[in-house]
């Protein structure tokens, strides 16, 4: 079976960040969001993938590090429905797997979807997941007499972003879902699942991915000072440098060729991506620092996302409380700094700041 993966959305909940970087290309723990999807599809037995993209097509192509045959198709028709139709045109089979490229879930999520299709007698299978925050941001469904019914409200079951559906002639994908759902199978996923739509989803994804870590994984090629302190549940990749008297208190991730300066503290579900540089005397917690970003000395980042190649000056402080995240359970959210942006020295940045 072939799959269509959607990666052409505007990423409204992450603007202005997504004006410069497609959200499916955002790197978390050394892997782009879309690569988490493709890895799951490969484990589920998908043989080939059609990825629907927009003007950020090359970002998606460069971000993929999963060994699975794929081709990219530039979206021509508008909306999600148009993206599905543009991808479906490349599918020769009667049924195909439709996946959203901004979902982070375990491979078993996609394997369960495929198993439900193989073991049943229906041409369509829907994945559902319980949600408790930001219900208005999801497509919803409910189960009535053991059948799935697509609804607009009144349910805590969300459409989970992966489906097997028959090819059809439709002008609205949600209406098509409503049409075929009474005759479809479904399964309710109770494992790890994050829909990357808002800054808090990225922060949550780091926590979810690192929560499975039982022991530290430290590359023999990493350069760690004898005076540095490395805690439990820490990943340190090849050629990363952890300099004198710095502390990495897990759970945390330090990517390839990243640099952690003297006396800095990296803690509590932070992901410092490849070639990022953290200056001396910094503290970073609950944050993502994307590849090649630079954080100036004596800066404090919490619940913050720093885009690739962005530059944060010295002595910059982010304040994360009180904030109003759309999906977050905690009222904490720091700054969203877009790729290639610059924050000048000495600034104190309030909650929900975006640049």
TrEMBL record:
Domain Nucleotidyl transferase: 2-152
Keyword set, alphabetical order: Nucleotidyltransferase, Transferase
Gene3D superfamilies, sorted: Hexapeptide repeat proteins, Spore Coat Polysaccharide Biosynthesis Protein SpsA, Chain A
InterPro entries recorded: GlmU-like (IPR050065), GMPPB_C (IPR056729), NTP_transferase_dom (IPR005835), Nucleotide-diphossugar_trans (IPR029044)
Sections of the chain in a coiled coil: none
GO molecular function (one): nucleotidyltransferase activity
Domain called Mannose-1-phosphate guanyltransferase C-terminal: residue spans: 249-316
PANTHER family hit by this protein: N-ACETYLMURAMATE ALPHA-1-PHOSPHATE URIDYLYLTRANSFERASE, NUCLEOTIDYL TRANSFERASE
Name recorded for this polypeptide: Nucleotidyl transferase
Lineage per the UniProt record: Archaea, Thermoproteota, Thermoprotei, Sulfolobales, Sulfolobaceae
């Amino acid at each position: 079976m072939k799959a269509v993966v959607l990666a052409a959305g505007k990423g409204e909940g992450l603007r202005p960040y997504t004006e410069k970087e497609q959200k499916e290309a955002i790197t978390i723990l050394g892997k782009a969001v879309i690569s988490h999807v493709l890895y799951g599809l490969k484990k589920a037995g998908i043989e080939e993938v059609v990825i629907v993209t927009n003007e950020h097509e090359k970002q998606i192509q460069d971000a993929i590090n999963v060994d699975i045959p794929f081709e990219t198709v530039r979206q021509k028709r508008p909306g999600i429905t148009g993206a599905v139709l543009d991808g479906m045109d490349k599918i020769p089979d009667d049924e195909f797997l439709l996946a959203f490229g901004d979902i982070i879930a375990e491979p078993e999520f996609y394997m369960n979807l495929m198993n439900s299709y193989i073991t049943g007698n229906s041409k369509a299978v829907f994945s559902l997941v319980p949600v408790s925050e930001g219900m208005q941001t999801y497509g919803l469904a409910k189960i009535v007499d053991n059948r799935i019914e697509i609804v607009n409200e009144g349910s805590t079951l969300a459409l989970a972003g992966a489906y097997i559906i028959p090819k059809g002639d439709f002008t609205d994908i949600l209406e098509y879902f409503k049409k075929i759902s009474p005759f479809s199978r479904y399964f309710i996923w109770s494992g790890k699942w994050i829909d990357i739509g808002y800054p808090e989803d990225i922060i949550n994804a780091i926590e979810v991915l690192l929560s499975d870590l039982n022991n530290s994984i430290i590359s023999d090629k990493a350069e760690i000072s004898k005076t540095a302190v490395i805690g439990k549940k820490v990943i340190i990749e090849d050629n990363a440098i952890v300099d004198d008297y710095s502390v990495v208190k897990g759970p945390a991730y330090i990517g390839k060729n990243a640099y952690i300066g003297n006396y800095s503290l990296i803690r509590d579900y932070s992901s410092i991506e490849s070639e990022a540089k953290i200056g001396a005397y910094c503290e970073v917690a609950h944050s993502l620092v994307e590849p090649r970003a630079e954080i100036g000395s004596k800066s404090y980042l919490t619940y913050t996302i720093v885009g690739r190649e962005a530059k944060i000056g010295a002595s910059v402080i982010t304040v994360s409380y009180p904030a109003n995240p759309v999906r977050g359970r905690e009222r904490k959210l720091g700054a969203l700094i877009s790729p290639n942006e610059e924050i000048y020295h000495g600034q104190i940045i309030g909650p929900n700041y975006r640049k």
